[in-house]
Amino acid sequence: MDHEPSPSPLPPLDPPFDGDAAAAVPAPDSASVSAAVSASVLAPGGSGRIVLAATPIGNAGDASARLVELLATADIVAAEDTRRLHRLVQNLGVTVAGRIISYHEHNEAAKTADLLDQVRSGKTLVMVTDAGMPSVSDPGFRLVEGAVAAGLTVTAAPGPSAVLTALALSGLPTDRFCFEGFLPRKAGERSSRLADLDAERRTMVFFEAPHRLEPMLRALRESFGADRRAAVCRELTKTYEEVIRGTLRELLEWAESNEVRGEIAVVVGGAPEREPGRPEDHVAAVNGLIAQGIRLKEPVSGVADDALLSKRELYAAVLAAR
After folding, report:
1. Which tens digits make up the pLDDT trace of 89-100?
2. Could you tell me which CATH class the domain 2-160 is placed in?
3. Could you give the CA distance from residue 256 to residue 218 in angstroms, rounded to a whole number?
4. Residues with Cβ within 8 Å of residue 246, at least 6 apart in sequence
5. What CA–CA distance (Å, rounded) separates 41 from 145?
6. Which residues of the chain fall short of a pLDDT of 70?
7. Residue 225: how many CB atoms within 10 A of its CB?
8. Rounded distance, CA 278 to CA 276, Å?
């Protein structure tokens, strides 16, 4: 099992908050980016728009100059957690001039209509979550959905992403992947979801809470096999960043013997390619279906697809066995 040592300390953003590290992160010169932001983000002619603004996932140094300018100039800043927003702007040395509102999964249904009215009236609304890109496993989708339906402008100030960071560091194939978010907490529902992913060939990225990592890894091992390659990515971009790579068996053993803390992403390799069988090994299956009154062409086609065989070769094998 590969166990990547912790990198050199990085200035953290989320608690535990390091004041000295925060002071070491200089705020970008807002004057130097104001014109560019005004041209690319703020709506022309006073028309309103929504900007989904990605925030650092741990290291405050990852905040973009565009994010800084948006926070300073937006009419409204909708934040998943206003306390974390205040820590972020303090860390960046930014003063939010606009109105700050709380917008999270428990109140977004009630607040979305009013926010859309504000945008319709010409306001610029910046949406931020605790970390990363809004609407990706975070609040924001309902706001975007409503804006699109209303014909309002939605854009983004892209930035840090826990999904892409974990994928890139995992050492697993990155050419095709899917994001599955959090697995269901209940064992039965979790097993059902994993059964749906049993044949998934793409690399899979999950989020998980530290106290549920062990049962999650156990469920992954039972569903995908102990030898499936995976990686546990912990505290990405923070001081104690750690990436553990190995098989699901090895990762479960690691989780069982360690007290795991922090924000976690789990990356799992896709299902391996199945080796095609020999046509003659599947003749009996075809003949069994024919005995039920099904014409030759249909069982040959179905069995060949399931066994990754050439239909022509299986058809020939059935005829040769007669």
Report:
1. 999 999 999 999
2. alpha beta
3. 10
4. 1, 2, 229, 230, 231, 254
5. 19
6. 1-46, 274-276
7. 14
8. 7
